[in-house]
């Protein structure tokens, strides 16, 4: 099965290289921020950024660098999930069911491949944690405690909400008389030391940038708060229920399809692992409930549940294992279903840039950045000293198209790459209308940046470029604007 999964992610890698080299939102951000190695960047922790910086440093700015990292992390996620399943389940068949069931979670099977980055790092860290955690409970060793420490460190600098996973696991074990001794083993110091060493660089940045690191997420969760307490609580619980259904609904349906009537009595079965996982799930969901009741949370998104509910397929298989349910019939259903999901996901990702324009639904992959970069180079008669913009998505795409040119995005004013501005290499500014319509005049923010750079008011030459969409219908054009100025 591992070889099949390896082949599956190789196909994903090949598909991303074959479709247009326009970037999605997270992809563009990763390409833009891979110019710098920093302890923190924005409201997201930096683990994926650090990995992308390293891969880009090795292989250059390219779709190859983006795809090889994502596909490798996702493959390793399935691998460590499989290893965790092998530790906790009696047979290979149920371990196969648990691992393939990850394909039934849309946020893992589809969204992670389509664009997500920090969530991909969280999926990897969560799978690694489950492997280290169950290995420590089953056969404690310095290696297992160290793996768990690495997973905790990686997870905390992937997504802040990952903290609920190790916290709930610790409390769940604390209430287990047999397993509690694992918490009083001297090797737990290895877990703590390794995780602290991993998170320390970002933690020092976090203390000085707490509002930046948490403000955007809290704004998304809490909303305006103008509708009153009861409305906020109702909205919070409804969004939590919707998020759980969106995350786990298809998984539950597929398990019912595979195991039929034998699933219901299995849910009452128990073994050494199921009480621990049940306590973990109760604690995790309980923490979200407390956020809704006392922290004003009114919007819970399904992908935020990834580190919390990723254990669900394994938990269901633990229940089936405890009930001694024969998984062979389930595999006869589950393997074709998994193959169908793999094929559908690959097909959608491979063709979405083609069929969208047929119905007038242009996507980010249809935006012609490569053609714009060519027009820009021809327009200024050479290579820019630096590209300056205020739209991170556009700015990241420009760096992909012109990888040897440094890019400054005003959305990240703390990050300023070095460049040489001279009579042969102008500063170039880029902007657009958000929907590809006629761009505005030279933006005030870019003018202010230029005046600050030059020490006086300069009026750059500007130009609007119209280029056809990638796979677009005849006559459908996308417009960009650029300006350039010499010293």
Question: Briefly, what is this?
Answer:
The chain has 487 residues and is mostly helical. It has 20 helices and five strands.
How would you characterize this protein structure?
The chain has 487 residues and is mainly alpha-helical. The chain contains 20 helices and five strands. It has helices at 2-18, 25-33, 47-59, 63-88, 92-100, 106-114, 118-138, 142-156, 164-174, 188-208, 210-222, 229-259, 263-266, 274-294, 306-309, 312-322, 328-355, 369-380, 392-401, 444-454; strands at 386-389, 407-409, 427-431, 461-468, 477-485. It has a five-stranded mixed sheet, covered by helices on one side. Helix 12 (229-259) runs antiparallel to helix 14 (274-294) and helix 12 packs across helix 17 (328-355). The mean pLDDT is 94.
Describe the strand arrangement of the main beta sheet, using strand numbers: 2-1-3-5-4
* End-to-end C-alpha gap: 60 Å
Stretches where pLDDT is under 50 for at least 5 consecutive residues are none
Structural class per helix/strand content? mainly alpha
Q: Give the averaged pLDDT, no decimals.
A: 94
Taken in chain order, the helices and strands follow as HHHHHHHHHHHHHHHHHHEHEEHEE
Number of helices, counting only DSSP H or I runs of 4 residues or more = 20
Q: Evaluate the radius of gyration.
A: 25 Å
């Amino acid at each position: 099965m591992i070889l099949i999964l390896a082949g599956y992610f190789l196909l994903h890698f090949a598909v991303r290289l074959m479709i247009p080299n326009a970037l999605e939102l997270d992809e563009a951000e990763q390409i833009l921020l891979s110019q710098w190695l920093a302890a923190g960047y924005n409201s997201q922790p930096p683990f994926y950024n650090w990995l992308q910086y390293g891969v880009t440093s090795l292989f250059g700015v390219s779709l190859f660098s983006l795809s090889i990292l994502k596909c490798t992390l996702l493959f390793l996620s399935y691998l460590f999930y499989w290893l965790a399943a092998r530790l906790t389940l009696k047979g290979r068949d149920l371990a196969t069911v648990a691992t393939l069931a990850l394909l039934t979670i849309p946020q893992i099977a589809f969204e992670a491949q389509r664009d997500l980055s920090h969530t991909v790092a969280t999926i990897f860290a969560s799978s690694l944690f489950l492997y280290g955690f169950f290995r420590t409970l089953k056969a404690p060793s310095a290696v297992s405690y160290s793996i768990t420490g690495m997973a905790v460190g990686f997870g905390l600098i992937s997504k802040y909400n990952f903290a609920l996973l190790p916290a709930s696991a610790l409390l769940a074990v604390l209430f287990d008389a047999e397993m509690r001794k694992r918490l009083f083993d001297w090797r737990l110091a290895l877990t703590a030391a390794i995780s602290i060493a991993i998170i320390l660089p970002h933690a020092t940045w976090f203390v000085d940038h707490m509002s930046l690191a948490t403000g955007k997420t809290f704004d998304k969760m809490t909303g305006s708060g103008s509708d009153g307490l009861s409305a906020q609580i109702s909205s919070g619980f409804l969004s939590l229920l919707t998020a759980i259904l969106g995350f786990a609904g298809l998984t539950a349906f597929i398990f019912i399809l595979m195991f039929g009537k034998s699933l219901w009595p299995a849910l009452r079965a128990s073994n050494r692992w199921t009480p621990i996982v049940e306590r973990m799930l109760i604690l995790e969901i309980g923490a979200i409930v407390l956020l809704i009741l006392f922290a004003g949370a009114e919007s819970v998104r399904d992908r935020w549940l990834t580190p919390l509910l990723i254990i669900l397929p394994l938990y269901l298989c633990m229940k089936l294992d405890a009930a001694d349910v024969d998984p062979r019939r389930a595999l006869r259903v589950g393997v074709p279903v998994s193959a169908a999901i793999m094929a559908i996901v690959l097909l959608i990702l491979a063709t979405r840039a083609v069929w969208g324009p047929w119905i007038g639904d242009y996507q980010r992959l249809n935006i012609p950045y490569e053609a714009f970069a060519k027009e820009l180079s021809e327009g200024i008669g050479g290579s820019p000293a630096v590209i300056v913009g205020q739209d991170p998505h556009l700015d990241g795409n420009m760096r992909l198209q012109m990888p040897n040119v440094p890019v400054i995005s005003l959305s990240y004013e703390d990050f300023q790459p070095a460049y040489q501005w001279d009579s042969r290499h102008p500063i170039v500014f880029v902007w657009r209308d958000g929907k590809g319509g006629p761009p505005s005049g030279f933006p005030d923010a870019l003018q202010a940046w230029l005046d600050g750079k030059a020490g006086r008011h300069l009026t750059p030459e500007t130009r609007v470029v119209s280029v056809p969409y990638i796979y677009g219908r005849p006559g459908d054009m996308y417009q960009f604007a650029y300006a350039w100025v010499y010293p």
